[in-house]
Amino acid sequence: VSKVDKTIEIVGFSPQQRELYITKYFEGLPYCDNALKLIKECEYLFSHCYSPVMCRLVCFLYETVLEMGGKSLPSTLTTVFLKFVQQTMQNQESLATLARVAWYFGEKHQSAMKSDHLPSKEVKEFALKYGFFLPFAFPRPSDSGEEEFGSTFSDFVIQNFLCALHLTLAEDIKDKSLTKYLSFPSKKKKPYNWSDLVPRFLAGLLFLQDDAYFCSLSNKDVKQSTKKQKTLLKYFKRLQINELCPERLLELLHCTYETQSNYLLQHVALRLKPDLSFLGVVLTPPDVHVLHSILKRSRKEFSLDLRNSSIDRLKDLVGLKNVTSFRASLSDTVRLWKSLEQTKDYELLRASTEKFVLDPFKAKTVKDVSDLSDLVEMQEKMINCVQDASGCSSYEIPAIKNLRKLEFALGPVCGLQGFLKLVEILAAFPSLQHLDLDALSENGIGDEGAKSLSEVFPTLTSLETLNLSQNKITDVGAEKLATALPSLSSLKTLSLYNNSICDFGAENLAKVLPVMASLRVLDVQYNKITGVGAQQLTDSLRKCPHIKNLVMWNPTIPYGVLEHLQQLDSRISV
């Protein structure tokens, strides 16, 4: 496929499945007892094993390393692949030719080829012998009964590595043209998306000048290889790291990690902005590993936004001392805290709760409300264990205690169901100042939702803004609200815009306005109030010097009546 918007691997290996696969792969081999232990010791390579394809490849590469007499895995993908190709020491010319073939077909977005497309029979035999190729049967043409056989690269990662090797060794590719093969040239253009891993391998290879085997591969023109490294180094130094989007920043981190250059790693770490957002970007285990590795090199303090990132190694990032605050999906956060509670890691449990940020929070699905409920429930469970660890007499999760703005936007289908569940936990947020139920899709909590909310008003002592616009509230709901509104001692703004409130509802609101000393703005526009209800609100307004604005244009109020009322009191808006 020449152009792909996004590739998603829906199901990956869990940590337990990784271990099981590796154990089964080496079952019956002489080194099966130590294989899992040694692969896990190389955390970066083990992190790639979340992908079934990469897990098989890591096992295959490690098996090759062991057969060559090695006892441990190198620390990066580049060095482990270089270790793999060392078995071809006597066939360097064939390797260079194969690298050219990989690049040629890669540019055509192909991995399979017919035998007559290869330079020689020797190259094909070489590639099959060392595992670069697998036999491949091409689809049978409709006008012929014969099946045609050829070869395909055994893995897209192997083809990517060979492409990078070609770019490094080829004399016809000048040092200044290398940068266009990286994945972060601009925000608008990514022309080489068929070769996602090439930039990482390219960066890694160009910083392997001290590797004896690599030097033997590139000894034809050591100066040219050094020039290419310097060009890449200059490019990295000129990059405006703060302006990279999250995806490009991650790619830069991977490329930098593959170089294992202390200078480059420190250079990037020091230029990361303090507020790093990966909102909506899926963070794979390798992403988390390189991010963690580079963050801990920096002396800066960081705030991370990891919401909707499907992260499964949240503990690694949250545990960094220079990560002072983080946002993450509630389900991921609660899962982390439950895990820390089970392992009795109370110190990190307390530290992570203090770093967690919730404000502002927007509930868009029933699951969001359920997750928020789980968070409140988690606080109740945590009180005892954190007390035991810290010796304090009481404990509140700061994120819950400090939540000031809560938006609710579930829409009409699940609006009432979700809101009734939300009301049950509202009392857990003592600092809540802004509750907003005005959504474009309309939540439609109706009178039942209004009644349920009014019952918890006495607990919302900090609430300053209540927006109940567009929720299908009638006089019944307005009466319930009006009865309880005086208990909102801090309320400054109340919006009931675009509901179905008539004169009876307006009358009930008018009765309580004088006792709502903190109220400054009331919006009852686009309801079904007539001139009668408007007059009652105006009469009440005279007793309310504290109110600054009453917005009550309604299509059912004759214009002349509303204009007259506005002349009586300039605080009325039309």
TrEMBL record:
Sequence ranges assigned to domain NACHT LRR and PYD in this UniProt record: 158-266
Q: Which key words tag this protein in UniProt?
A: Leucine-rich repeat, Repeat
Kindly give the PROSITE patterns that the UniProt entry links to this protein.
LRR
Ubl conjugation keyword on record: no
Instruction: Check the record and name the InterPro entries matching this protein.
Output: Leu-rich_rpt (IPR001611), Leu-rich_rpt_4 (IPR025875), LRR_dom_sf (IPR032675), NLRP_HD2 (IPR041267)
Please tell me whether the keyword Repeat is annotated for this protein: yes
What SMART domains does the record point to? LRR_RI
Q: What is the top-level taxon of the source organism?
A: Eukaryota
Q: Which organism is it from?
A: Sula dactylatra (Masked booby)
GO biological process: one example:
positive regulation of transcription by RNA polymerase II
The top of its lineage is:
Eukaryota, Metazoa, Chordata, Craniata, Vertebrata
Q: What is this protein called?
A: C2TA protein
